[in-house]
Amino acid sequence: MAPQEPDRHTFYAGKPQPSADSKETFQTTDPSTGKPVCTIHTSSPSAIDSAIRSAQSAFPSWSATPPIDRARILLRAVALLRARNDDLARLETIDTGKPFSETSTVDIVTGTDVLEYFAGLVAAGGLNGETLRLRDTVHAYTTKEPLGVCAAIGAWNYPIQIALWKSAPALAAGNTLVYKPSEFTPLHAEHLASIYREAGLPDGVFNVVYGAGDVGARLTSHPAIAKVSFTGQVATGKKVAASAAGGMKYVTMELGGKSPLIILPDAPLDSAADVALLANFFSSGQVCTNGTRVFVPRPLQRDFERALLDRIRHVRPGDLFDPATNFGPLSSALHRDKVLRYIRTGTELDRARLLCGGPEPVDGLPDSVRDGYWVRPTIFTDCTDDMAVAREEVFGPVMSVLYYDAVDEAVRRANATDLGLAAGVVGRDLDQCHRVIAQLQAGITWVNTWGESPAEMAVGGWKLSGVGVENGRRGLEAWVRNKSTLIDMSGSVPTVFTKL
């Protein structure tokens, strides 16, 4: 059983702040056992306002701090995060249900890479503007100014990684931040705030509020908030974006997907099957970019299904701290039940052919984790585009295999969705791979792989999958506003208001 974590309270002005009017609490649980591990005190309206005031007070000094000095503080945080990687990974495993083999090698590592990238970018002149010579006596220059106090709302599937993806460019650019983690996976937030403070981040620059949608709504609608960055499902993102738009706030929205993976006719079957499993069962399928619609040439059907079944044996649920475990439970009982409903829909209403998995309990689990929120890795085949499992975002370990007769047909069907987060192809002919990728309507695409998202690569969705990008140089631009200045050195003012 996971050890009980200390209670969490709103964090602002450099420390946790218990408040008399924060009377509501909720429990966060270990998804592998269903046992509570921490009591979270919901941030009251006054506590949210206090966190925002703390950020407002810190903004003038932090925004005036030279980028190189901001970078030095952030790089000290990078060193602390790396030194404490395993401790933070254990916390993420307890909070999310992901195996330690994953959290210790991916979650903190990739989030810290982003923090290091943006610290280096601003230190190397990434916030420099342009100087334009317009004519002999006139030139113009641009500057990139921080936005002010910003709000960031995280998702439950990659808690600390998403917190770093948002806070790294925000703080590097000179903004201050109020961060709300998901109410399902909030344990990381105070640890990250403490690490930032230990690294030298001034009090009030990074603040944390806790709670559900009502807390997020108050945060995003607050008149002092200049920007909202949100990661989550489409329906919630629409509400957040609408609220922010009413106050003319900047927004970045990273929302859901129903991403296609197209296996081309010349694809090596072993690689195709490996990519398909990676695109569906990593993090127990709880990844917004997952390639859950797998399009396969009809002549390859039998061999592809055989390759999937051969590999599904290597998906290993179990004790999350066993190095051999590579598949965990879902994040909550609520989410497990939702995914199981989709699996039953796939078999009973969609009438898809169940290749493996299903709604039955996972076999062979150790007693210590048998009460967790487990779902079997499930593959539906002979799917059609109108089936719920092939059309709606399940966000669990459920793959839909769809067969096609011509590549143009596969591309057309792949694009027949309101979502456009990610897409990918597997094939030997790289010219054909590039031609197909160019036609796919998605903001993040892969060829012969799936899922890698390095700090240097800007990522963001098309259609209803989002607005704006995160990471890369363009990710920094999302946290600044432009100021243009024109200077006339001629000594005279051109004007129409002269004596005739």
From TrEMBL:
InterPro entries linked to this entry: Ald_DH/histidinol_DH, Ald_DH_C, Ald_DH_CS_CYS, Ald_DH_CS_GLU, Ald_DH_N, Aldehyde_DH_dom
Example GO molecular function: aldehyde dehydrogenase (NAD+) activity
Protein name: aldehyde dehydrogenase (NAD(+))
Top enzyme category: oxidoreductase
Limits of the Aldehyde dehydrogenase domain: 21-484
This protein's UniProt keywords: Metal-binding, NAD, Oxidoreductase
Reaction(s) this enzyme catalyzes, per UniProt: an aldehyde + NAD(+) + H2O = a carboxylate + NADH + 2 H(+)
Record EC number: 1.2.1.3
SUPFAM superfamilies the UniProt entry points to: ALDH-like
Highest taxon in the source lineage: Eukaryota
Biased segments, Basic and acidic residues type: 1-10
